[in-house]
């Protein structure tokens, strides 16, 4: 500790000395005691720094202001007398008002989302129970639009030019083949679509050929091939009810996850992929889907049993969640929020098919195991 920080330094004084007053020792008396200087700590007073010059300053240095008083310390509540505060802050004893609580937002235009959802539901149900072929056409149109959205985003964001024409034609044919010839027809159409993608891309320069055809094959499997399982469900005697069960369970799972997650969600499910999804929302999806599955299997599916519906609902909640996370991964890689803007409140067609596509083969398989292909 530098003692020159305490008390008022005198001209020519450089600390206690054995030579007394001749060498500038501190004057004796009650005002200063050289022997007690290390023990007495009066309130520091900022002195006027005496001017020194010549060799004396060069050898020993002028009296400096030092010590803890002049170090970088937290800002004092009030400045010392005569001190100019640095970066003064407003000092008020009045209590600061608490920030107004923010209302939790649902994150989407619910009015538009509900309106579009009801409209799509009417079209789907009407086509499903009137003429089966019309519903197959609706599925084919959704597949073509979904392929257009996916390939457009790949081209815009990554420069990947997956050929849309063979994908669209092959995708529509794939859905029709699945309805007419079952799984065998779907696989044959998938193989032919892949071949068409490989050949179509040969008409362009070879640069980027591998990534373009790889993206094309992925798009063919991801959108139309998975959609063929919906068409295959429709071929059963109670086909419309199977498709309706598939749609209801997927929508109920998504609704349960959304409602419970929005209201009670606290723990993130996969924050690096989809920050909005929570574990509480997943539990809501499972509970809602299992309840709906038990009801659907008991009252809509021929020879169905309620406990089979519980298993079906659990599987749907898992596949729908994984499908949603899968497309979220794709969109995060592309750096986009939605795949399109065709459906107000929902985004694009692919933003609605994300959970339906991977769920279709799961529901088709479980229904075949539980009640047969009928």
Fraction in beta strands: under 5%
Please, what is the average pLDDT?
80
- H/E series: HHHHHHEEHHHH
| Alpha-beta classification | mainly alpha
Strand order of the largest sheet: 1-2
Low-confidence stretches: 1-43, 46-76
- Give the distance, in angstroms, between the N- and C-terminal Cα atoms: 94 Å
If you compute it from the alpha carbons, what radius of gyration comes out, rounded to the nearest whole angstrom? 39 Å
Structural shape? globular
In this structure, how is the largest beta sheet organized?
2 strands, antiparallel
Give the strand tally: 2
Pathway: Phospholipid metabolism; CDP-diacylglycerol biosynthesis; CDP-diacylglycerol from sn-glycerol 3-phosphate: step 3/3; Lipid metabolism
Organism: Streptomyces caelestis
Main location: membrane
GO cellular component, one term: plasma membrane
Question: Top keywords for this entry?
Answer:
single chain, 2% strand, mainly alpha, 374 residues, globular
Walk me through the structure.
Residues 1-43 and 46-76 have low confidence and may be disordered. Helix content is 58%, strand content 2%. It is globular. The termini are far apart. Helix 3 packs across helix 4, helix 4 packs across helix 5 (209-234) and helix 8 (306-334) runs antiparallel to helix 10 (356-371). It has helices at 54-60, 110-130, 132-158, 164-201, 209-234, 239-264, 279-299, 306-334, 349-353, 356-371; strands at residues 268-270, 274-278. Strands 1-2 form a two-stranded antiparallel ribbon. The protein is built from 10 helices and 2 strands, in the order ααααααββαααα. It is mostly helical. Among the domains are: 126-235, no CATH class; 237-373, no CATH class. The longest helix is centred in the middle third of the chain and has 38 residues, at 164-201. A hairpin with a 3-residue loop joins strand 1 and strand 2. It catalyses: a 1,2-diacyl-sn-glycero-3-phosphate + CTP + H(+) = a CDP-1,2-diacyl-sn-glycerol + diphosphate. It is a multi-pass membrane protein. Keywords: Cell membrane, Lipid biosynthesis, Lipid metabolism, Membrane, Nucleotidyltransferase, Phospholipid biosynthesis, Phospholipid metabolism, Transferase, Transmembrane, Transmembrane helix. Residues 1-11 have a biased composition (Polar residues). Its EC number is 2.7.7.41.
């Amino acid at each position: 500790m530098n003692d020159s920080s305490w008390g008022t330094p005198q001209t020519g004084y450089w600390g206690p000395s054995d030579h007394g007053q001749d060498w500038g020792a501190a004057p004796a008396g009650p005002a200063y005691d050289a022997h007690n200087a290390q023990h007495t700590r009066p309130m520091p007073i900022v002195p006027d720094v005496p001017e020194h010059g010549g060799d004396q300053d060069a050898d020993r240095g002028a009296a400096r202001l030092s010590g803890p008083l002049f170090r970088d310390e937290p800002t004092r509540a009030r400045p010392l007398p005569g001190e100019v505060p640095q970066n003064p802050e407003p000092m008020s004893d009045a209590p600061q008002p608490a920030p107004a609580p923010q209302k939790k937002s649902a994150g989407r235009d619910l009015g538009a989302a509900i309106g579009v959802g009801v409209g799509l539901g009417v079209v789907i149900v009407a086509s499903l129970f009137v003429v089966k072929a019309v519903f197959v056409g609706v599925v084919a149109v959704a597949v073509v639009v979904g392929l257009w959205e996916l390939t457009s985003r790949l081209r815009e964001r990554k420069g990947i030019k997956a050929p849309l024409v063979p994908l669209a034609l092959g995708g529509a044919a794939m859905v029709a083949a699945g309805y007419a010839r079952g799984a065998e027809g779907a696989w044959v159409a998938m193989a032919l679509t892949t071949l068409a993608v490989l050949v179509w891309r040969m008409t362009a320069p070879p640069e980027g050929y591998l990534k373009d055809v790889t993206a094309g094959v992925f798009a063919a499997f991801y959108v139309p091939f998975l959609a063929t399982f919906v068409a295959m469900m429709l071929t059963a005697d109670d086909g419309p009810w199977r498709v309706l069960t598939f749609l209801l369970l997927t929508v109920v799972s998504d609704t349960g996850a959304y409602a419970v997650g929005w209201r009670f969600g606290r723990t993130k499910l996969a924050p690096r992929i989809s920050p909005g999804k929570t574990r509480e929302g997943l539990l809501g999806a499972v509970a809602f889907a299992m309840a709906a599955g038990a009801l659907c299997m008991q009252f809509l599916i021929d020879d169905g049993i309620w406990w089979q519906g519980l298993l079906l609902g659990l599987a749907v909640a898992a596949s729908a969640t994984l499908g949603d996370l899968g497309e979220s991964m794709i969109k995060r890689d592309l750096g986009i929020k939605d795949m399109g803007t065709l459906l107000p409140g929902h985004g694009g067609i692919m933003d609605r098919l994300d959970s339906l596509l991977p769920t279709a083969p799961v529901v088709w398989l479980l229904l075949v195991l539980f009640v047969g292909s009928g």
